[in-house]
Amino acid sequence: MKRSPLTLHLAAPRGFCAGVDRAIRIVEMAIQKWGAPVYVRHEIVHNKFVVDGLREKGAIFVETLEECPADRPVIFSAHGVPKSVPASAEARKMLFVDATCPLVSKVHIEAQRHYDNGLQMVMIGHDGHPETIGTMGQLPPGEVLLVETAADVATLEPRDPARLAFITQTTLSVDDTAEIVAALKARFPGIVGPHKEDICYATTNRQEAVKAMAPAIDALIVIGSPNSSNSQRLVEVGRRAGCGYAQLAPRADDIDWRALDGAKAVGVTAGASAPEVLVEEVIAAFRERFDVTLEVVETAVETVEFKAPRILRAPAA
């Protein structure tokens, strides 16, 4: 049977960011150093394929520290944790490794600095997301006010409107966040912002690549898990950029092929916690169904790399 021609636009950058790569390496190095099992508080990154692979190697994923025995190592996920979590681990004399992404840790440090200067925080983020919980948990209750939309800004009741600063979750939509920041500055002209953008380089770069390809494609496939914030944002960015159809697909088997009937050009990208092997799987699935021409849409080159914590690194020779 003759296959229809299809141009597959492949976003670059896509997939793993430096923080995700570091977090996965931390779990693998911990298993190698201390043997299995190693406990991980929350999914190390939001991708089922990655989590299942680490589980097979000897990682046990739990949601609370209380589920971890005191005599086995525990790793905190890349999303970050409230200050109470390492404090509890220390009280139990547990061996723990913090895999929090350094760019999330930067936001934590920033929040603490503003608090030390007497400012109350406004956090732009998603309620209930582990990163938001971890960041808000860096400061005492009531010191961080959460907003999810520009409309939320109107209902804020800060302690002192003249003594405010804002921080953001690192995986948000760049455009949505800009809208919320504008609303904050309009209502609180003196609000202090971050020295450098809190939304991480990888989130920004992946969104820019989707925007660049959107005018040329009929549909967009974002490879990523449903609980991945940055992957969900890529779907939204594609739709807003004019892509007629955008779908989140954890694996090739999850693609709704009927929705792609008649498509001549399809974009493919992957969230920051989705490995390249899943991208290759999706490309292979397209080749089985279409006569594929592959075009790479490159909008940035990423060279960022984060080292694993010293406790896991081999001593210098």
Q: What does the model show?
A:
Keywords: 4Fe-4S, Iron, Iron-sulfur, Isoprene biosynthesis, Metal-binding, Oxidoreductase. One of its GO terms (molecular function) is 4 iron, 4 sulfur cluster binding. Helix content is 35%, strand content 19%. The chain has 317 residues and is an alpha/beta fold. The protein has three domains: 4-16 and 201-298, Cobalt-precorrin-4 Transmethylase, domain 1 (3-Layer(aba) Sandwich), CATH 3.40.1010.20; 18-101, Rossmann fold, CATH 3.40.50.11270; 102-187, 4-hydroxy-3-methylbut-2-enyl diphosphate reductase, catalytic domain (Cobalt-precorrin-4 Transmethylase, domain 1). The strands form three sheets. A five-stranded parallel sheet has the order 10-9-11-1-12, with helices on both faces. It has a four-stranded parallel sheet with strand order 3-2-4-5, with helices on both faces. α5 links the parallel β6 and β7 (144-147).
